[in-house]
Amino acid sequence: MPYVPPGGGGAAALTASQAAALVSMVINFTVGRKKYAEVEEEMMGYLARSEELRRNLLAEVDADAAAFDAVAATYGMPKETDEEKAARTAALQRALKHAAAVPFGVAEQCLEIMRLAEPVGAKGNSNVVSDAASALYLAYGALKCALVNVNINLKFIKDEAFNSEWSAKTSTMLADADAAYARAKSAIEGTLGVTL
Predict the structure, then answer these.
(1) pLDDT in tens, 135-147
(2) Contact between residue 140 and residue 177 where contact means Cβ atoms under 8 Å apart
């Protein structure tokens, strides 16, 4: 079987994992340095979370592929009788809901990375805080990619209440991401003394 690269949701998860790794890298260059001794305990807490996010997001690459495969599998279900058609439609709708939930979970983790980038960018080792900026940009882009994958699945879901709920969640997520991005960008610019 030929190699099939990850789709948009998987790429978002992989990118976000790289963003978390960059946050971890900044922290690793901060802890153990005398100049940053007063923030070491705080940074160690951030490191535990950034590493957990990094690992979780790598696993989400496969989770997203599995969610896509589950949707694709429903198209191969029989549809000769009314019962088969109903079963196929129900299976497709369940699979689409799951396929929307997986990238939304990725987006939630992207938002966490963006929120970590603020204190790490403000208090981390100034020699590598530019990498916190890279983490912020990657996490923000990955969040938007993940939400595209939520929205495309919502388009085909017939449950109006589900769509309304998840559309609202997506809008809230975008607003929260914009706010987190602005705060982290400002913090990082303050440390670096340059405009991002």
Answers:
(1) 999 999 999 999 9
(2) yes
In 112-190, DSSP assigns E strands to none
Mean pLDDT of the region 54-80: 95
The answer to whether residues 146 and 13 touch, using CB atoms and an 8 Å cutoff, is yes
| Helices and strands in the chain, H and E counts | 5, 0
pTM of the model: 0.95
Token pair in block for residue 164: 């309304």
The answer to whether residues 159 and 90 touch, using CB atoms and an 8 Å cutoff, is: no
Percent of the chain with pLDDT over 90: 96
Element housing 173 (H / E): helix 160-192
Nearest to 175 by CA among 153, 147, 138: 147
Other beta carbons within 10 Å of 80? 7
The pLDDT value given to residue 1: 52
Angle, CA 162 vertex, CA 62 and CA 69 arms, to 5°:
25
Count of Cβ atoms closer than 10 Å to residue 40 Cβ: 14
Cβ contacts of residue 46 below 8 Å, gap of 6+?
23, 27, 116, 119, 120
Residue 5 has pLDDT above 90, yes or no: no
